[in-house]
Batch of 2 targets.
Target 1
Amino acid sequence: MNSHKVLDAKGLACPMPIVKTKKAMNDLESGQVLEIHATDKGAKNDLAAWAKSGGHELMRHEEDAGILKFWIKKA
């Protein structure tokens, strides 16, 4: 899946993946996609809830060798 920016949030504990995601989203235009890589298991629920509350679209998420990957389209 294509993304406009990749955020490396691996090794960060809650709430830092959300804080960094919010900051990275500010740099994107509406409709662009942010790809996030995280290792905090709580990020799965946190990022889904954060995207929904902000009107963004969690397009896809997957886990690969302990790394959670998310693709969020900016509203």
Note: The domain at 5-73 is CATH 3.30.110.40 (Translation Initiation Factor IF3).
Target 2
Amino acid sequence: MIRLEKSMIFKYLPMDIILASERPPFSKLGQKPGTRPPKLVTPGEIIDESTNYIRGHGTYMENGNLIASVAGYVTTVNKLITVTPLRQVYQGAVGDTIVGRVMQVQTSRWKVDVNSRLDAELRLANIQLPGGEQRRKDLDDERGMRGLLQEGDLVCVEVQKIGNDGLLKLTARTSKFGKLTQGTLVKVSPSLIVQDKQRMQNLPCGARVIFGANGYIYITPIVVQDVVTEYSEDYEEVSYDVREIIGRLHNVIKLLANHSIMISRTSVVTAYNISAEQNVPVKELLKPDIMIDIALATVQELNE
């Protein structure tokens, strides 16, 4: 039996130690100089005792006082006061671009998971058939639905309508919507997604990102915009460089979400560039100490 001394065990184990005191306070980096931090409230807390304000989402009136109904931060626009929840389930809004996963193939429709408490469906009549055909779907099209989309497939769709029964009705009738292939999916809280009319972004690093309003973010190689969506599998090989870019974007988005930093094109590109400039390997980006360093540097640069 070989006996090892303690000095032999730890002699060749280098350790990098970063003191917490060496890092700037995260709370101070999270706000711009000269601005006041947002007011946080809890359910039942009085926001204002005046009746001069208009009650918005997340608030209610009681005994002449404006009271918060959810935990979140207070936003005031003119005389309208709302409370935005820190964490929320996607509720759905007409016109939202979202990413979903097909769960069931039903009669003339697909049941889609959109990360919401509401059920969602994509009807056969609301998709654009291969070749860009805009026509009435017949019985043959209905029989071949599984050849277009089947269980597990990812789709990029738009919210067309919210039914009275709470059902989200989806549509994919233009070439920019449809089946997604050759990419990776990142799931974050919907409250972290910045509201933006342009949710499909070609980033300068060489990848395309769909910032779904429902918290599903899809990263894929850049594709030609004029090509009509084909509902078929894409088995074309993706180069190593592009896969590395997609992997870095995936981990960058995860670290931003882990530190509750709002996710947008600007924040993602900033964090990506910082990690690349520091030559941080892709697999190292999910280490806790590196995550907080990149997050701090990102917030600091965004506030400059």
Note: The mean pLDDT is 83.
